[in-house]
Amino acid sequence: VGVAFWEKIIQEHGITPEGLYTGNNPQQIERANVYFTEAQGGRYVPRVIACDLEPGVLDTIRQSKFGGLFRPDSMINAASGAGNNWAKGFYTEGAELLDQVLDTIRQDVERCDLLSGFQLCHSIAGGTGSGMGSLMLQKVREEYPDRMMSTFTVVPAANSSDAVVEPYNSVLSIHHLIENSDMTFCLDNQALGNICLNVMKKPLPTLGDLNSLVANVMSGVTTSLRFPGQLNADLRKLAVNMVPFPRLHFLMSGFAPLTSTQVQSYRHVTVPDLCQQIYSTNNMMVDVDPRHGRYLTCAAMFRGKVSVKECEDTIWNYAEKNASSFVEWIPNSTQIAVCDIPAIDSKLSATFLGNNTAIQETFNRVGEQFSKLFRRKAFLHWFTDEG
């Protein structure tokens, strides 16, 4: 997921796989230093730290088209793997790598003029993303308590599973996410697969297709940080508007326009179209039906040549018509941001974030699976052996 995001924003900023700027719009590079460090010879280097407890994934990145872009010392991996075990990632294997990772973070932070916060991409089903992800969250929070911590978290899907112990890993991680994260954008492969099948009409979606959907959302959420716009919303501003109570920071996300490639050239996208799509259940990137709950707060981020007034009017009209979907004790609960620079593949696009009470369905599902295993004390010895 992380690599898909970097590939996306490298293209948006007009940077080549070698790290050189070849764009034609000065606005592309005006605020590139939010995500990139400018090195010698005008090379732009992503400010990223990639860690894993096994070498396979990072080796793939090193050998990819964009492999030469990342700093070698920002790719940190062990050799043994976490074996889908949260305790290995948190207590044993992950803890051994921790000092090296924190040291690299410290060096990167010292190079910053003004550190806004951290973004963590991980999955809470396996061992590394859940265990080591929780450990990183906790330690970074201790070292930088006043900085924003946002996470893009892939939660286990309802009908597909890589590991039997997913419910254990997830429950242990969710506790850390509740305590140590300021904003958590929930994603799941089931919902992403459904979008590819039903909305984009791809009969056999690959992981690359799913990742590019997530990259769209990540790129949309961070647009206001990366480009000058008419109405900006940085990470902190977003969190202030989206999180009414500290523990309720688990957000659903959506993106528009999503259409099949055959239909794309026949459609003219308008702001009302986008509004209808981003609130649609089919476009949600987590397997939850927002109609089963109510929205506490929402954010809509528009990109492209569009009038702020039109965006505001469309969103207000939607909120008035569907007043029953929003809680009445937070008036004007939708925040809007507008950025003039369009996404690469569409002239007009919108990213949606919603803090909806229906997100509890995800946690209930994981909780039920956890209880079934825990009642029988199944697989527990793998965790207790690690401490």
From TrEMBL:
Residues 32-229 form the Tubulin/FtsZ GTPase domain. The keyword GTP-binding applies. Its cofactor is Mg(2+). GO terms for molecular function: GTP binding; GTPase activity; metal ion binding; structural constituent of cytoskeleton. It comes from the Eukaryota. One of its GO terms (biological process) is microtubule-based process. Pfam families: Tubulin, Tubulin_C. Signal peptide: none annotated. Residues 231-368 form the Tubulin/FtsZ 2-layer sandwich domain. It is found in: Cytoplasm, Cytoskeleton. Its main location: cytoplasm. Dimer of alpha and beta chains. A typical microtubule is a hollow water-filled tube with an outer diameter of 25 nm and an inner diameter of 15 nM. Alpha-beta heterodimers associate head-to-tail to form protofilaments running lengthwise along the microtubule wall with the beta-tubulin subunit facing the microtubule plus end conferring a structural polarity. Microtubules usually have 13 protofilaments but different protofilament numbers can be found in some organisms and specialized cells. Belongs to the tubulin family. Tubulin is the major constituent of microtubules, a cylinder consisting of laterally associated linear protofilaments composed of alpha- and beta-tubulin heterodimers. Microtubules grow by the addition of GTP-tubulin dimers to the microtubule end, where a stabilizing cap forms. Below the cap, tubulin dimers are in GDP-bound state, owing to GTPase activity of alpha-tubulin. PANTHER family: TUBULIN (PTHR11588). This is Tubulin beta chain. It comes from Linderina pennispora.
